[in-house]
Amino acid sequence: MPPSPPTAAVPTTAAPVTHYENFPVASLLCPPRLRPPITAIYAFARTADDIADEGGAAPAERLADLAAYRAELAAVAAGAAPGPRWAAVFGPLQVQLRAHGLPVPLLDDLLSAFVQDVEKTRDASGYATRAELLDYCRRSANPVGRLLLHLYGVQDSAALAQSDAICSALQLINFWQDLSVDIPRGRHYLTDADCAAHGVDRAALEALRPTPATTRLLADNAQWARTLMQSGAPLVYRLPGRAGWELRLVVQGGLRILDKIDALQGANLCRRPRLGPLDWLRMLARAMAM
């Protein structure tokens, strides 16, 4: 589900997390004044993720709950008191909406991506082109970066474009590391156009056995994500103090996962790459060298 970047691509957090492993919740590098809004945004996204992805609810029930959750967002943004069902989420979020003027359309974009994921999983449908997949990333991942930039007071078009590149890259990297989990669940993020270009059909992917053709397909998509990440990386120089260091670690975490994917030579189709202690040291060294 959106928009989790690769596992372990974020610095130590003050609270345990699962789906949104790399959302910088109350990070040790996060300025204390920004921990309440970041935590409120995280709780909002995490709860929506649970609605869309956890438990045994049927797709129709998930979609109905997401519609109700979306309506609750609109209501509290307009000043209504939070309802009882999600008061623990929308109470703190409403406070932060008022305190920081958080852009509500970005939060709504996240929910539209959750809805799309439920619909595509229900229908076992995929994405036709990279442009279509990037539109999903625009709503599933990019809002997180834009919300954080809003909190840091960085709003120029160049910074927003670089943030979008980083967030989309992280979303893609998450897809490429989770193929062995997503494909059996009916989630297909390798586009039809890319599969056709490499002579790979869905049955070959669902077998979860690397072939020369699937290996070339996965390497091509990993390089796509790497190029996106590198295009956004200069943003680290725009963020002040600890925020810049946090972003350096996020960028280097994503790139390190791509190193692991490359080393697997197509076996990420059946095995999830993971970061170990030595990888963290390498990420820290690379972050310091940026």
Can you characterise this structure?
- With 290 residues, this protein is mainly α.
- The protein has a single domain (32-289), classed as Farnesyl Diphosphate Synthase, CATH 1.10.600.
- The protein contains 13 helices and no strands.
- Helix 1 (35-53) packs parallel to helix 4 and helix 4 packs across helix 5 (130-140).
- The chain is globular and about 55 Å long.
- The protein starts with 34 loop residues before the first helix and ends with a helix.
- The model is unreliable at 1-26 (pLDDT under 50).
- It comes from Paenacidovorax monticola.
- It is an enzyme of class 2 (transferase).
- This is Squalene synthase HpnC.
- One of its GO terms (molecular function) is squalene synthase [NAD(P)H] activity.
- Its EC number is 2.5.1.21.
Can I get a quick summary?
65% of the residues lie in helices and 0% in strands. With 290 residues, it is mostly helical. The two termini are 30 Å apart.
Which features characterize this protein?
290 residues; Farnesyl Diphosphate Synthase; globular
Q: What is the CA–CA distance across the termini?
A: 30 Å
Mean pLDDT: 89
The residue fraction in helices comes out at 55-70%
State the assembly state of the protein chains: single chain
CATH superfamily, by name, is Farnesyl Diphosphate Synthase
Tell me the series of helices and strands, N- to C-terminal: HHHHHHHHHHHHH
Helix count equals 13
List the helices and strands and how they pair.
Layout: H1 35-53, H2 59-77, H3 87-100, H4 104-123, H5 130-140, H6 142-152, H7 157-177, H8 179-182, H9 192-197, H10 202-206, H11 212-232, H12 241-264, H13 277-289
Helix pairs in contact: 1-2, 1-3, 1-4, 2-3, 2-4, 4-5, 4-6, 5-7, 6-7, 7-11, 7-12, 11-12, 12-13
